[in-house]
Amino acid sequence: MPAGQLPQGDPDARWLAAAMNATFFLLLGSALVRFVQRHGSEVNAPTVVTLAVLLAAVYVIGPGRGIPAIPRDPVRPSVRTLAWLASVVAVWAVLVELAPSFAWVAVPLIYAALRTLPPLAGYALVGVLCLFVIAAQLTLAPRFDLDLVVGPAAVAAFATAVFTYLRRQAARQQDLIDDLLRTRRELAATERRAGTLAERQRLSMEIHDTLAQGLSSQRMLLQAAERTWESEPGGAREHVRTAASIAEHNLAEARRFVHDLAPADLARGGGLAAALRTLAERESRGGPAVRVHIDDHTGDHGAGSALPERVRSALLRIAQGALANVREHAGATTAALTLTVLDDQVVLDVADDGAGFDPEALPTASSAPAGVRGHGVPAFRARVHQLGGTLAIESAPGEGTVLTAAIPLGTR
Questions:
Q1: In the chain, which residues have pLDDT < 50?
Q2: Which cofactors does it use (predicted)?
Q3: Residue 272 included in any domain
């Protein structure tokens, strides 16, 4: 790999790599043409041409991994990288010894040394390359010229200073990015904790102001009824009726909490498929045997895990309610839950071999209680319709029942 080859994700890095590679081959090619034109008939000409071709081949092969254009931290080169760099420098040094006109190929090699080696080692290699260039220029000059010493040294020093500055800038920028990402993560965690605490406080206040207060009132009323049961039967019965009314209200509040919170089976993780299996296992203990079948056509082995939370919650609630109806009313011996996940919709089928019934006698969705409470078919319809889906029931007396809930997913 050429010394300028860089990771493919950064357009600027690819541009810099192309520029450095082009500079290397341009300097190498121009030096080779100059040598052939002026010294092509000399005895060592074939050796010089062979070394030039070898230098190009070694440069192209390179190490098998990319190195950042301006690494933020001192790099730790691998043995292969060190061997490649040593080979390039060695071939170039021999080539410069035979033909000093190849000295300026050191310019891209300086860049390769700085970006490949740790700082001190890179500076040392840059100094060695600079000495070779100065010696070659003095060899080609008819007499000693101070510019031939100062010029290459100044170019090398300037290139090294610029590279070092850019490396430190890259390190500072990366540190700022790391700090920003860390701050964002901490802020997100803080917001999640604040939201969790706020929700806990809201629920605790709701429960205290409704369920807890209601239970406390029921206890007091029932205790009063017990005390007056013999002496004042009418008053005791009134206390009991009041307690029953409070209990009914508390039941409505509890159902509201259940509707607003995610199902506990989904909260355990594993997606809808795992929640359905847990539900089936629980229902099979005191009722008909429940089987679960997952049919995933999307290639997602965690079927149901990528579904929207509202869809998962609605389908699990429907499955819970349908199995409750099977257990209480169908007289079935077996039931089956089938979850079919397609690209554009998800379908839940609940089938049983029970007594069946006439679907036409069911109440309509408009008669379902407000808030989608309870396990009845109207509640199922309301849940599905809220998500833009459809509910179908196939049943007949003595032939079992199949309930099908289909919810569209749009573009997955």
A1: 1-9, 64-68, 301-302, 365-375, 411-412
A2: [4Fe-4S] cluster
A3: yes
